[in-house]
Amino acid sequence: MRVVVMGLGRFGGGVGVARYLVKQGADVLVTDLLEADKLADSLAQLDGLPIEYRLGEHNVSDFTTCDMVIANPAIKPGNRFLRAAQAAGIPITSEIRLLVKALPSRLRTIGVTGTAGKSTVTAMIGHILNLALPQPSATPGDRSTTTRPKVWVGGNLGGSLLDKIDNIGPDDWVVLELSSFMLHGLREDHWSPHIAVVTNISPNHLDWHGSFDAYLADKQVIFDYQKDVDCAVLPGWQRQHFQLDADRWPDRVFDFDEPTEDRVRAADMMIRLPGRHNVLNAEIATGACSFAGVDPKASKSALADFPGLPHRLQFVLEHNDVRYFNDSKCTTPEAAKLAIESFEPGTVHIILGGYDKGSDLQPLAGFAAQRCAGLYTIGATGDVIAATAKDASAGGGLSKGAKASVVRCGELEAAVRQAVQCARPGHVVLLSPACASWDQFDHYEQRGERFIEWVKQAAE
Fold it and tell me: pTM of the entire structure?
């Protein structure tokens, strides 16, 4: 077969599927709108493989003369090249769709979705299972050695499990972070995971989905094709957004209330990550792992060693009694609000703004102005955030008498300089932009790396 991989990307999905296709004997063409220099790391991982490339452009004829197109899930279905493939009768699929079809057992899959927190919860589940998954019992009289199943973590978290598929055994657990884009495609395969996990839901990616209802419909796919033997995990206050037959699954739906202050204090003694939302993340992960056979006490013990993920409330350094946190992965207003709430009112100097995804940023701007010590705006959405924040700040109401200063900075480096200059002992400087990075950076990792670099320079 001649297969076109549309979108090599920088996060490993395109690399993994290209390797897999070559191994299967396919004639592979990789096409990406980015030039080779922007894809250097990904291209290096494919060096030496018999792959044809078309970079810096797409060509319609590639999509109409092949046997199959593997499209990056984030590409909109209405893309003109995909429309051309459809008109020519060419099948279109994605890396995640190929993966779930190739997995040896759906009953060993855990899928995690949500607007915020899904990467952290996915990583927490993988961490718990690696440390606390029960050792299988040997059959009486069987002298063979029993080994604990392996745990594989992938999906939207980065990388691809496709090129590792031959190593995934039928008893191994596979934990997948599933974006709304991925779930949109999985609807066509009528596939949902054995253990379906939702962290939270709020409007997001409306520029892609078109409406909140459409976004919810794609998230619903994580439950839609589950069977009677399957399980669901989600916060109780999110149930209103989803259709679940709880009467049919009375023992297989795990939900719970928002963390109380007592639960937050207890969890603070056990997990490294700051914030009430990370307490909830830990409880969600523990609930999911209980369905995989892990005792909740063992899960909580395992999470004591969970280090967190880069760019997700990542502690950078402390200098002059000021702590610096990189939360560049935060691309929604709700996630930014949770990050702010992770620290004492009146102590946070937050950097907000970036690419405009169509989210309503005004409530966040008002909240930050009332809760933070300083607010520094960047990117395409910076002016709107600053204007709203100044209006809210003028009304006062900050805890402990603090009053937020609001500064339009434009560029991230300028925002870091301003925040470092204004922060006082006991304060926190936080990059939690609530917006995507694409107006000024190639991706959120680059934005976070630059933040860390400039913070370290300022601390010298």
Answer: 0.80
